[in-house]
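1st attempt posting a full record on here, be nice pls
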Amino acid sequence: MPLKKSAYLASILLMVCSAVFAQGPSHLRNEQPSIPVDEIIRKLAEKEKQFKIARANYIYRQDNRVQTLTADDRVTGEWHEVWDITFDPRGKRVERVVSAPPNTLQGISMTKEDLDNFREIQPFVLTTDDVGKYSLKYLGKEKVDEIDCFVFDVAPKTIEKNQRYFQGQVWVDDRDFQIVKTYGKPVPEIRKGDENLFPRFETYREQIDGKYWFPTYTRSLDTLNFSSGAKRIRQIVKYENYKQFQSDVKLTFGDAVDNDSSKGTAPSGDNKAPALDPNLKSAPNTKKK
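the predicted structure (as tokens):
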């Protein structure tokens, strides 16, 4: 997101108060896996590919909120849009805006790249189609709630023009070989001319259908250090009401998926994303059924 030219920022104070809400690995165990790391990466990419195809059969609601803050985290403005991700009568994936109050953000504006981050980078999926674009380094093991995970550092090998990438860490279930948590930021940023910077974020997944881990909650509290000063922001994204799409048509979303036999299934009551709470300090539970 770019800085508005009219913004006047207390940059020194903001940088002093720039504690980040999202967190990377903090309790890593220097423990080697029982199978080769390359095998874990291969299984991860295959499972993520299957998950991406499965998620393309689901409709859901995505609640996106961005707030500008003072140094003591008082809200000064907000951009808020709610999208329904669904299908048209021909089976084409569509995104429908169902709520969009007036934008009151102070000092920054939303860009196409910000919206693309909400769609693709924050709910990061590392499939067999994309894994070759990234370098993965095994860091160790760490628990996310009661789930024991392999932790990998992930970074793009090269950055191609007009392409968006993720850079950070992923936590991979050591039994299901699926991503259950992501921490990092979108890259590249634009530092020259019309600056476009992005916050670090943390995304949690939960089991919705008893098989795959779906993104349910993204949060960020960060300070964007523009050349003309710093701007503190908070982002909270909820992905909720996942339901399998029911139709006699063939769905297309990346790979073609025949959905004739799908049955509607809503998430269980104990697997909902946490309530939207700007003061929330603890991570949502990430539990298996």
